[in-house]
Amino acid sequence: MKKTVANLKENLAALRTGRASTALFDKLRVDAYGDKQAINQVANISVPEARLVIITPWDKALVSEIEKAIRNSELSLNPSNDGKVIRISIPPLTGERRKELVKIAKNYAEQSKVALRNIRRDGNDELKKQLKAAEITEDGEKKAQKDLQELTNKYVAETDKVFAEKETEIMEG
Asked: How many other CB atoms are there within 10 angstroms of residue 87's CB atom?
């Protein structure tokens, strides 16, 4: 369940808000040395200002490949380079794009809740097997089911909290 919430946080971090963030490029891959590499494996990414990202490749030959990967990504960003570094100005989001991003974030949160419920279901199935095999008592099963439900509720609430924070960030961005 912890991994599910961590995965949600990772997915939401990759969503572009109105602010510059190095997390925007975490899932972006670039063709480098005959293989797909994460951008942070071939370049230094920094955020000197709220709406500016600077990517400095360690190998200057990768400037055009990194620029191409950013242009072809779903981030809708327009990078520019001077042959040594890539500058990306993060434009402010339109109201329509903000609503679209909130929908995407809500979908990620919903997927996480479904995953949490599936984990609970698998746990309950395991408890039933243990009861059938006489490994636990009926009271033990009921208590374990109650504990599992409480744990599920806790992580569902954490998922809601993470989503609400991201929604606020997107809408005020």
From this structure: 13
| d(C-alpha 50, C-alpha 173), whole Å | 10
For every residue of the chain, DSSP letters joined together read -HHHHHHHHHHHHTS--SS--GGGGTT-EEEETTEEEEHHHHEEEEEEETTEEEEEESSGGGHHHHHHHHHHSTT----EE-SS-EEEE-PPPPHHHHHHHHHHHHHHHHHHHHHHHHHHHHHHHHHHHHHHTTSS-HHHHHHHHHHHHHHHHHHHHHHHHHHHHHHHHHHH-
Beta bridge partners of 28: none
Does residue 172 register a pLDDT over 70? yes
What is the signed CA dihedral for 126, 131, 135, 138, rounded to 10 degrees?
A: 120
43 exposed, middle or buried (CB, 10 Å; 0-12, 13-18, 19+)? buried
Neighbouring C-beta atoms of residue 156, cutoff 10 Å: 18
Please report, as a single letter, which amino acid is at residue 8. L
Per-residue confidence band for 18, with pLDDT thresholds at 50, 70 and 90: low
Tens digit of pLDDT for each residue in 99-121?
A: 888 898 999 999 999 999 999 99
